[in-house]
Every structure is written in C-alpha cells, then in structure tokens.
Amino acid sequence: MSVKEKFELKLGAATREAFGKALVELGKADSNVVVCDADLSKSTFTHLFAKEFPERFFSCGIAEANMVSIGAGLASSGKIAFVASFSAFVLNKGFEQLRVNVAYSQIPLKVVGTHSGISIGEDGPSQMSVEDLSLACSLAGFTVISPADEVATFELVKLAAYHDGPIFLRAGRVKVPAIYAPGQKFELGKAITLIEGKDITLISTGLMVAECIRAAAILEDEGVSAGVIDIHTIKPIDREAIANAAKNTGCIVVAEEHFTSCGLGVRVAQVVCETNPCVMEFHGMGDYYAESGTPEEVLVHYKMTGKDVAVTARKALARK
Amino acid sequence: MQKTSDIGELQAIARRVRRHIVTMIGAAKSGHPGGSLSAVETLVTLYFDVMRHDPANPKWPERDRFILSKGHAAPVIYAVFAEAGYTPADSLNTLRSLGSIYQGHPDRRFIPAFEASTGSLGVGLSLGLGMAEAARLDKSPARVFVMLGDGEIQEGQIWEAAMYGGFHKVDNIVAIVDYNKIQLDGFVKDIMEVAPLADKWRSFGWNVIELDGHDIAALQQAFADAAAMKGKPTVLIANTIKGKGVSFMENNPKFHGVAPTKDEVEKALQEIGA
Ligand SMILES: Cc1ncc(C[n+]2csc(CCOP(=O)(O)OP(=O)(O)O)c2C)c(N)n1
Ligand SMILES: [Mg+2]
What we know:
CATH architecture of chain B: 3-Layer(aba) Sandwich
Largest interface: A-B, 31 and 31 residues
Radius of gyration of chain A: 19 Å
CATH topology of the largest domain in chain A: Rossmann fold
Distance between the termini of chain A: 27 Å
Distance between the termini of chain B: 20 Å
Number of domains of chain A: 2
Helix content of chain A: 40-55%
CATH topology of chain B: Rossmann fold
CATH class of the largest domain in chain A: Alpha Beta
Shape of chain A: globular
Structural class of chain A: alpha/beta
Shape of chain B: globular
Structural class of chain B: alpha/beta
Number of helices of chain B: 10
CATH class of chain B: Alpha Beta
Strand order of the largest sheet of chain A: 3-2-4-5-7-6-12
CATH architecture of the largest domain in chain A: 3-Layer(aba) Sandwich
Number of strands of chain A: 14
Strand content of chain A: 15-25%
CATH superfamily of the largest domain in chain A: Thiamin diphosphate (ThDP)-binding fold, Pyr/PP domains
Number of strands of chain B: 5
Radius of gyration of chain B: 17 Å
Helix content of chain B: 40-55%
Oligomer: heterodimer
Order of helices and strands of chain A: HEHEHHEHEHHEHEHEEEEHEEHEHEHH
Bound molecules: thiamine diphosphate, magnesium ion
Strand order of the largest sheet of chain B: 1-2-3-5-4
Number of helices of chain A: 14
C-alpha cells in the first residue's frame, strides 16, 4: 500500500481540544482529578472540566508561577492535579516552581502547555513556544509528551494522569490531521513506527508527524523509501526505535516545530551517536523568533510542511 | 505631529483611533478589541498632549517612554502611532498578517518606536522602573508611563515592581491600570478579584489617583498631578469600560479577544461616528 493510501490525513480536532475532553472523562471516572487554570480556560479547553466539576476546578488568575506551586501542593496531597496554560507561559513563568516544587521534590504534577510551537499564528512570538521541549526535558524525572493528533492526545492524557511522576504534555492550537484510528494503543516511552523505510527515517513529534508522512509520500513518488517514526514521548526517549532506524536506514531527518538547537533532534542525535552513528539533518526553527500570520502562512513561511521536510531529506540522502 | 491640549481635538483623535481599531481588527479577523477600546483616551492624552516625544526622532534620548505592558491591546497603540506619524496609516489593515509591521503583539523588531516587545503579561512595570532609574541616573527629564491591565496585575511580578517603586521612591514613573473589570475568561471578580485596588497600591507606597479613564480632562489633570508629585511613584486607576464606544462590545467579555464581523464593523463605525 502506498503512503497516500495508508494515510488519508483528514483534518481532526486540535490536540488542546482533545486534552480538554480527556480531562472531563478522567474527572467523571475519578473524583481525585483536579484542574488549575490561569485565565485561559477557554483556550486550553479546561473550561469543559470547569463546567462539569466546578468544585474541583481552581481559578488562579493570570499568575502562572503561583498556579504551578498550588498544583504541586494539590499533587503532593494525593490529588491527580493538572495545571494548564499556554506552553510559553506555564513553562517560562513557572520554571523555578517546576524545578524546585515539582521536579526536585518529585511531585507527580501534570503540566499541560497548549498553543505550542509557531502554529498559533496571529498572536505572534510572545505567545509561541519554540523552547518548551528543551525546558521540560531539562527537569529531572519529568516525562515529556508531545502527541501528534486527537486520538494520541486523548489516550496519552489518560496515561499521564496515572503515571507516577511529573509530566509535561505539549498541545497545539490548530486542528491537525488525524493519524491514528480510535482504539490505537499507546505506551509512554514507546515510539510508534508509522511507516517502515529502507533509505531514510523521518523522526518527528506533534503536528510535524503528519508533515513527515506527507514528505514520505513525496519521496515515495521519487522512488525513495522513507520511514516515519512518531516520538510521542520525548523523555524518556525510545532508544531502541531510534537505534534501529539508524541501523536500518543509515540516514535520519528529525523535524520539529521547535528550536533545532535544543529540541527533539539533539535528543535523537545523542542516541544515534551512542548507538549507530549515521547521517542526520535537523529540520525546525533556527536561532530566531517567528512572526505573526495565519497559522498556515506561518507554517509555510518557516518551512514546516511536508514539502520542506522532503527537501531536507534529499539533502541528507545526498550525504549518505 | 501637532500636539494639543484642546479636549475637542483630542476627542476627535480618539474617535479616529477607535475607527482604526475596529477596522483593523475586523480586517485581521482576529485580535483584541475590548482592551484596545478601553485604553483609547489614556493613550491619546499621553501621545498627543502629555508626553515629550518626537515621531521624527523616535530614539531621542530624552524622550518620555511608554510601555504597553498589556501587549494584546496593540491595535490601540498602532492606531495612535499611525495618527502621530510614527507608522503608515494605510497599512493598518495588514494587522497580524505575515510580514506586517503590525504584529499580533508589540514587536520592536518591526516598529522601533516601541520601547518594549510585550505580549507576555506582568513584566512591563519592572521594565519601566529600570528605564526610570536610568533616567534619574542620567539626570534626564524623561518620564516613564506603563499601561497595565486589571487582569494583568494578578501576576506576582507586578507587586514586586510595586514594592520596588514605592521603596526606591521612583517618582518619574506613572503606572496606569486600565480598570475595565474584565479579563480573558470573564469578569475579574469571578476569576481572581483584584479590589480594593487603591488601598493595595497605597500600601505599597504609591500616590494613587482614581479617575474616569474616558474623561480626557481628568486624565490631563491626573498626569499633571503625577508630574508634580515628588518622592513617590504615581498610579492612575483608570475606571474604564471594556469595548468603550461600541455598544455591543461594551462590558461584554466576548469581545476580549474576538474580532467583529464585517457587519459588526459597519455597525461599530456608525456608532463611533466621524
Ligand atoms: C503571562 C500571560 N498569561 C496569559 C496571557 C493570555 N492573556 C492575554 S490577554 C489576557 C487577559 C488580560 O486581561 P486584562 O489584563 O484585564 O486586559 P484587558 O482587559 O485590558 O484586555 C490573558 C490571560 C498572556 N498574554 N500572558
Ligand atoms: Mg481588564
């Protein structure tokens, strides 16, 4: 079956919306689930939980640092506590609190950052987060999750809730193509190989996974067999999947909606260096901040499309 | 740019600014009309009467500084910049589109007249204090004005800054709280009450002036009183109406961050008048 036949990539819900719906389901099943918000409940979709369970919803106002520590207090008292805001705000404003009250203290708080990457579009760089994976991964003991679509988000949020440790989950603003069928099983730390390839492996996370599938389809038309791996858990990373891809294809492109200097790519490279060194290229944001535009315009301008990933793949293949 | 203290003239500028705000957000199909409209009179009074600045020389070292700490209200300052001659008025409708100088939030990379790139709430007052301290060190007459949202002041850093301003007697700074009683998710009283505002600021050592933030004469008087106040920073608690000037936006939390439709733009422009 060709890549195009296998993946229809029909537009599904935004991952932030799937997060909000998963919270409601969790809240129904378990009265221990609580949610904190910092005046963005309509944007993060925690308003769905707030409506169902007002007594378990804590409005913190525009005060993300305070919210993180309140969440840590709730979590250390046995609650399954979620705190949510835009990724840029909860991580940047709450970083000290995440480091000391959560990571260092080993508190199983669930931190969700929505509106990640540059695909938020119009609001521009002050609200875009292109360093969140780096920040979250630098928190010792954190599990860092970055789902690619609605189904993945829904399942991973539920897994995150009952994971015995702190979590950061990265969600996006815009509707994204559906990759997984309902019922797909996920396991934290276990990457999903969506396409087996012979010549090159495209490794990605979040909304760039769908673009890597598009790139694989383009490359397939050119006679190149490109594999695609979805790293939905950035930390701990699936070393085996990466080592195998390096061994089997000898050529890897990592694509991400993040600074390439400190995101998924460098983490994959670490594993590749330690296992089966091979040709690698890194596709994402360079050392600059983006600008405003519609999400589509911004993604095209900053080369976050399948076509662009295919260009980088050709560059990697030429070096092989 | 022609400066004026004439209230009728300032009101006419305010009407033009409101028209720009509604039109550009309508064209962009996204943006924050409510908090832009509530801040119109304050910005017009500052830029066209009170502040010492020169659109032909935006980096004049002795200029007064203005920081829009509530950066999402960018459309109001874009309209003021265009009216003052800092930036072109004919491209205001490119707001929020790729390549436009009129970015979603104030961006110094595109408009040098901005003292700060803002959009993440809570940081502007501290930044302003640094500028005010630099001016005092340089014996510069420059004064600093910082506009804050009433939701924004829920950020802890605002109160760290408030404590600094009072303790260090930074009397060349003026904070303005756009007290429109609404934030993103709803009314401030339902999200995280900030009242009693005057008492809070007073207890941090600030000279507090409460006024109607749509009354230009009151604003002129308040800024004059602030300039005369020695040994204390001043905060203006500007009682305003979110969405002011457009009936269906006034006091309506929906229009915090939702653009008017084409019909709504027409209706709004009729209400604002020429
Ligand atoms: C640190 C931070 N947290 C959250 C936001 C998202 N946000 C944008 S505007 C807004 C509400 C602001 O309310 P207020 O300060 O009252 O502004 P105004 O009513 O004048 O529009 C929020 C929460 C942000 N921009 N920055
Ligand atoms: Mg407000």
